[in-house]
Write a structure and sequence with these properties.
This protein is mostly beta strands. The chain has strands at 2-7, 10-13, 18-26, 33-39, 46-52, 58-60, 68-73, 78-83, 92-99, 116-117, 121-126. Strand 7 (68-73) and strand 8 form a beta hairpin.
Length: 127
């Protein structure tokens, strides 16, 4: 019922920063959770961060905690991922996803817990 479009990816040197954006469009839906996943070549899709739409609670993967920040803009139906102190191992295609579930359900950590997905945006971190 909705479309998600990521933007903001690109090439950055190690230690640099990028901001990814995810814009939602289409019919109104329950925005309980919006999350970010990433997938590197030869690896499975990996959880990065999630935010509760209604109460602004967040949760991060250990690998990005302290470096990445997820945020939302209710008026723009958008979610953002601010990435700081980037490392070469952060190189991946980053995907935005939306879910009608709640954080306490425990499904936010897995791709199967999200109903809607964007096409992805490439982030490449050089050493």
């Amino acid at each position: 019922q909705v479309q998600l479009v990521e933007s903001g990816g690109g090439l950055v040197q190690a230690g640099g920063s990028l901001r990814l954006s995810c814009a939602a469009s289409g019919r109104t839906f329950s925005r309980n959770l919006m999350g970010w996943f990433r997938q590197a070549p030869g690896k499975e899709r990996e959880f990065v961060a999630v935010i509760s739409w209604s109460d602004d609670l967040t949760y991060y993967a250990d690998s990005v905690k302290g470096r990445f920040t997820i945020s939302r803009d209710n008026a723009k139906n958008s979610v953002y991922l601010h990435m700081n102190s980037l490392k070469p191992e952060d190189t991946a295609v980053y995907y935005c996803a939306a879910s009608t579930a709640k954080l306490y359900s425990g499904t936010f950590y897995y791709p199967s817990g999200y109903e809607y997905w964007g096409q992805g945006t490439q982030v490449t971190v050089s050493s």
